Amino acid sequence: MSRFFERLGLFTVRFKYAIVVVWIVGLIAALAFLPSIGSVVQNNFSNFLPTNSPSIKAAQLANVFQKSTDSTVVVLADSPHVPLTNADSTYLTGLSRALKSVPTVVKSNVVAISANGKAEQIEVVSSTSQFNDIGIKTLVNDLQAKLASDPAPASLQIHLAGTVATAVAQADQNNSSASATQGFSVLFILVLLFIVFRSVLAPLLTLLPALVVSLLAGPVVARLTSVLHYQVSSVTQLLMIVLVLGAGTDYGLFLVFRTREELNRGRSPREAVEFALSKVGESITFSALTVIAAVLMLITATFGFYRGLGYPLAIAVFLMLLAGLTLQPALLAIFGRAAFWPRRKSEGPAKVKYGLWGRIAGRLVMRPVVTLLIGVAFFGILALFAPLNRPSGFASNASAPSGTNAYYGNKDLARYFPKASFNPTELIFRFSSPIWDHIGTLQTLEADISHSPLFTQVDGALNPAGVNLPAAQLARLHSVLGPASKLPGVSTQHIVSPGVYQLYRATSNYVSANGDEVLFETTLAAGSPGQNPAINAVPAIRAFTTNIAHKVGATKSGVAGQASASYDVSAASNHDLIHIVPLVILIIAILLALVLRSIVAPVFLVISVGLSFFAALGVAVLIFMKIGSHSGLIFILPFMLFLFLLALGEDYNILVMTRIREESHHHTIREAVVAAIGATGPAVTSAGMVLAGTFLVLGLASAGQAEVEEIGIGLALGVLMDTFLVRTLLVPSAVVLLGRWSWWPSRLSDVEPEPGEVSLAEGSTRTESAEANNREPEGQLS
């Protein structure tokens, strides 16, 4: 494989200008002609459930009760201190009429006044589908513009509320978080690279390919959603930005540091780039392949959220790999030594200094057993906190972001109109014949549900709008008036009183038009449907529903609502965690075996990252649950933490281990470890800080989005531990203890070279000879 990268190095240096032009043209074309990734983002976890999930089946069963897909926006006006005045009411009546002029609005009416007289609710109905993300954003923006053009009296506060306003607020925050994450990540990386390189161009050249791919990947991923049929979440959008900028900069650092090393050894700029790519090209490729392989395993997931991570992240990393192997060396070849200005040119072969990391490695390899025990003990103590985690956040996307207009609107809606913000759990029953043929069944169902300790409140056809309606009277009204769902808003026949007429019309929410389905809205005794106690109660609620369905002869039944969907989300997530993790471990172990020509090294490398995972999860529990006020960590964090630490952590292991292998051709195993750690230390340290920093920026820029905040900070902690502890303590000590067995069964495991010129005590310098300058490429089997 080394010959491939030698030829690739020659190609990229020779056609450097053409390569840069191709990337620029490709980026411009993608931005001009492909859709943005924000246009395909989904924000509700339940949208990612498989179609055979019980909650999805129940929702399908309840479809007959859905009036339409029209969008409804609540405009809520309140006077916080005193009841609404006549002037306030006059203004709101005029506002309701004015809102009808907004495009796509078909109805706008004042529908309710709060019990204390301090708030009024206007319901605006638009013909725009509630599932049309672009359409509802336009609707909300138009409504806000209309409100701004006709300012309210000083005594009134006006906000938009409801699911449509909430969805738009979430989408706006996602886009804002993505822009902030990208901007702050670029700034952080540039500052860090300027510190690392102490030159003007090197930081820009290192980051530029990753920045190009971060702009290119979004449109490409968005376009391929219709081809590969996957869904994209807001978390995927943010992770893709961070992964490309972080991992892409890492790949750039691997090449840039090795190019600088070769320049210091006296090679010409052209030769340095070619030789550097021949040496680290394999490491970059296999580092990217471990990430691609890991995320592609997610396409086997049952939970669409995980499945939606697979293709987008794999596509982004593949594009980054192409840029790392073509655009990055082309840029280095164009700028040559100027990339590292104002560093002075090295005159001929020189001593290679291994600095701090060489000295640290020199001391650690003298006591590998002690080093390994200390490392394992440290990680083990932190890992003890991991089992204390309590998964949460299954419905984290159900509320508007804090501080937004919709946040205050929903808050006021819940305060002044509690019934409007009611979040029921629905029990649905289907019968083989209309319920009107056996009306007593309705009484039996309501009685059984009302007496169950699982529920504190039950609303159905026998108590619509909170008013009791006897079964016999309900049956008579149906025989006289027909299906309630087909009645006009105002009675034209005057057969019954207006009050009874409207009461009967309200039963259309609980009995289907043909009478073969009935629905009950319940309040759970376990608490809010989005909290863990209610989610944990779902199996009992489903069992109860199934039992009474059999009792009354229903052919189908189901439990719909937030608690039911959240339980299925949890079940799907746990199923995928159990089934996908072993696949990811196996695939990455195979890739490590191929790049290291060993079946021993992959074992302790995977184990080291596993320890890092449990320790990172334990630290996250300490920070968010013990020190912070979180009731638990977002349920997707352990899976994301394991996946990315295993895939990204192996990037550094691959770079370090391939360099140890390279040095092992000419040194004893201890000397090889010191030389490799000393040589790769700056690159790996810088890369780890870049990657951890970008994840940290993700977490900090997404404050208010618990799932993204915890993922970002949790991954940042894991990467830092992997960078400074796993590579420093666990991996070098394991290699020294195993000795040449680390490379078994390759021929390199058979012969121990004579001690060379690397000082184990100092770990600082060695003389680079002509023989070493032209040493056998590391990719050759031996």
TrEMBL record:
<keyword id="KW-1003">Cell membrane</keyword>
<feature type="transmembrane region" description="Helical">
    <location>
        <begin position="204"/>
        <end position="222"/>
    </location>
</feature>
<feature type="transmembrane region" description="Helical">
    <location>
        <begin position="20"/>
        <end position="41"/>
    </location>
</feature>
<feature type="domain" description="SSD">
    <location>
        <begin position="606"/>
        <end position="736"/>
    </location>
</feature>
<feature type="transmembrane region" description="Helical">
    <location>
        <begin position="603"/>
        <end position="625"/>
    </location>
</feature>
<keyword id="KW-1133">Transmembrane helix</keyword>
<keyword id="KW-0812">Transmembrane</keyword>
<keyword id="KW-0472">Membrane</keyword>
<feature type="transmembrane region" description="Helical">
    <location>
        <begin position="234"/>
        <end position="257"/>
    </location>
</feature>
<feature type="compositionally biased region" description="Polar residues">
    <location>
        <begin position="762"/>
        <end position="772"/>
    </location>
</feature>
<dbReference type="InterPro" id="IPR000731">
    <property type="entry name" value="SSD"/>
</dbReference>
<dbReference type="Pfam" id="PF03176">
    <property type="entry name" value="MMPL"/>
</dbReference>
<feature type="region of interest" description="Disordered">
    <location>
        <begin position="750"/>
        <end position="782"/>
    </location>
</feature>
<feature type="transmembrane region" description="Helical">
    <location>
        <begin position="284"/>
        <end position="306"/>
    </location>
</feature>
<feature type="transmembrane region" description="Helical">
    <location>
        <begin position="631"/>
        <end position="652"/>
    </location>
</feature>
<feature type="transmembrane region" description="Helical">
    <location>
        <begin position="673"/>
        <end position="701"/>
    </location>
</feature>
<feature type="transmembrane region" description="Helical">
    <location>
        <begin position="369"/>
        <end position="388"/>
    </location>
</feature>
<dbReference type="InterPro" id="IPR050545">
    <property type="entry name" value="Mycobact_MmpL"/>
</dbReference>
<dbReference type="GO" id="GO:0005886">
    <property type="term" value="C:plasma membrane"/>
</dbReference>
<feature type="transmembrane region" description="Helical">
    <location>
        <begin position="577"/>
        <end position="596"/>
    </location>
</feature>
<comment type="similarity">
    <text>Belongs to the resistance-nodulation-cell division (RND) (TC 2.A.6) family. MmpL subfamily.</text>
</comment>
<feature type="domain" description="SSD">
    <location>
        <begin position="208"/>
        <end position="334"/>
    </location>
</feature>
<feature type="transmembrane region" description="Helical">
    <location>
        <begin position="312"/>
        <end position="335"/>
    </location>
</feature>
<feature type="transmembrane region" description="Helical">
    <location>
        <begin position="180"/>
        <end position="197"/>
    </location>
</feature>
<feature type="compositionally biased region" description="Basic and acidic residues">
    <location>
        <begin position="773"/>
        <end position="782"/>
    </location>
</feature>
<feature type="transmembrane region" description="Helical">
    <location>
        <begin position="713"/>
        <end position="738"/>
    </location>
</feature>
<dbReference type="InterPro" id="IPR004869">
    <property type="entry name" value="MMPL_dom"/>
</dbReference>
<protein>
    <submittedName>
        <fullName>Membrane transport protein mmpL8</fullName>
    </submittedName>
</protein>
